[in-house]
């Protein structure tokens, strides 16, 4: 597993544990080694990729990629190349039962939709396109939905998205919140949808590879500030800021599938999570 402690890594870890209780997990570390975890208990044994491949010869591995390194563009490219090399090496040796990863909605947009003064995001789009190409040529079944915006309790508890910060401000009845790009539309998918789709993939006897946008609905930050909720929260009154987006226009792509998700239901589920720590910055 790459990114085992992140939001998507947490979702994947829970589904894999449910599918194979007590299974051994190898979590990628910053130094390039893998830390072994068994039944939720982390052990100090560290393995290099070659040693990991040797262990897989007795039992096929599930390759799980839920990480990204945004510290710098060079770090981003190096980290993605490292993962791709290991995934391809294991696949060529027929050591993979399947590969699980997560694409980004940015790969569904033409390069012209990314502002020229955001070269890091252009590089991010490039590595995500390469990830799609890699998963398409793997010999094992692969799970690679493209995520635009993730909505759910994990994202809210970790305050890991602009919508989560706005919902927290609304829950606190904040009186002075500045929201950038409040009317920009974004595709979103619920964390529970991702978990359900992954569970179906893992349960299939002969799983078909999964790719393409994972979308439950479309929303803007103004919706998060105003949509009626079961918790009865009042609307959030905010001030509109200037745009600071890397994306020109809405964060959506052409999509044929129906949008059947309920934003209010997903926000209510997020509110049921433990309350996030107060934030002191009101620039969202």
Folded structure, characterized:
The protein has 284 residues and is α/β, with parallel strands linked by helices. 36% of the residues lie in helices and 20% in strands. It has nine helices and 13 strands. The strands form four sheets. Strands 4, 5, 6, 7 and 11 form a five-stranded parallel β-sheet that branches. A three-stranded antiparallel β-sheet has the order 1-2-3. It has a three-stranded mixed β-sheet with strand order 8-10-12. A hairpin with a 5-residue loop joins strand 1 and strand 2. Helix 1 packs parallel to helix 7 and helix 3 packs parallel to helix 4. The C terminus is likely disordered.
Give the overall shape, derived from the CA principal axes: globular
Q: Got a strand count?
A: 13
- Which structural class is indicated by helix and strand composition? alpha/beta
**In percent, how much strand structure appears in the residues?**
15-25%
Radius of gyration: 20 Å
Q: Average pLDDT value? A: 91
H/E series? HEEEHEHEEHEEHHEEHEEHEH
What is the overall number of helices? 9
N→C terminal distance: 31 Å
Largest sheet: 5 strands, parallel
Portion of residues within helices? 25-40%
Low-confidence stretches: 279-284
Q: Can you tag this structure with a few keywords?
A:
single chain; 284 residues; alpha/beta; 5-stranded parallel sheet; 3-stranded antiparallel sheet; 13 strands; globular; disordered C terminus
